[in-house]
Amino acid sequence: MRCLVLLWLLGMGGARTARAIEVKVSAQAMERTLRAQLFNGPEGRYYMHGSATSPCSAYAEDPHVTFKDDRVVVHVRTHSKLGKSLHGTCIGVSLSTESEVSVVPEAEGESVGFRDAKIVKISESSELNFLLEPFLSRKLPSQMKLNAADLIRKLLAQSLPSTGYTLTLDSLKLHSMQVDHDSLIIDVDATMSID
């Protein structure tokens, strides 16, 4: 079978003209990306204020991604100790809450990006919201951004030992994205070479 595919591709000139394909991305894949790129601190936390060793701190953890209508929804748990640090203890208030932000996926060349962040659920504490709002509306969507071409190139770098052929991604352009039930559908033009 591999020989037939190789012969067909070679007969077409090795490198092909860009053709449209459809890529489906699951919510779980987006969660893994978010955990790797943002929630990679101690115990899978992202500190908005302070650190794991600070008496007073605020952090988000446990991101959960779902799809609703045409948007990607990210749910996080937040915990904070807000107040004044005194002799290694935080004198103030401890808060725990659930927060949500929704974003619209957007094609950005080779990358999956996000825009139009809308905070769906936030704390009732104005002190905590001072930290949460910029995190939810700017930091989180920017860290969800994913360069699809880089990921595919990393995967294809393993092609020689597993297939006997060197597969190379020459170009990739994302055209459009839309949420469809339980997947993010991405329309892509790509050019590949086999050696």
Structure description:
With 195 residues, the chain is α+β, with helices and mostly antiparallel strands. The protein has two domains: 17-23 and 148-194, no CATH class; 27-146, no CATH class. 28% of the residues lie in helices and 51% in strands. The chain contains five helices and nine strands; from the N terminus they run H-E-H-E-E-E-E-E-H-E-H-H-E-E. The strands form two sheets. It has a six-stranded antiparallel β-sheet with strand order 2-3-4-5-6-7. A three-stranded antiparallel β-sheet has the order 1-9-8. The longest helix has 19 residues, at 126-144. Mean pLDDT is 85; it is low at 1-18.
Taking all residues together, what is the mean pLDDT?
Answer: 85
Coarse structural class: alpha+beta
Helix content: 25-40%
- Secondary-structure element pattern, one letter each: HEHEEEEEHEHHEE
Largest sheet: 6 strands, antiparallel
The helix count comes to: 5
**Terminal Cα separation, in Å?**
16 Å
Gross geometry: elongated
Please state the CA-atom Rg, rounded to the nearest Å. 22 Å
Strand order of the largest sheet: 2-3-4-5-6-7
Total of domains: 2
Approximately how much beta-strand content do the residues carry? Answer: over 45%
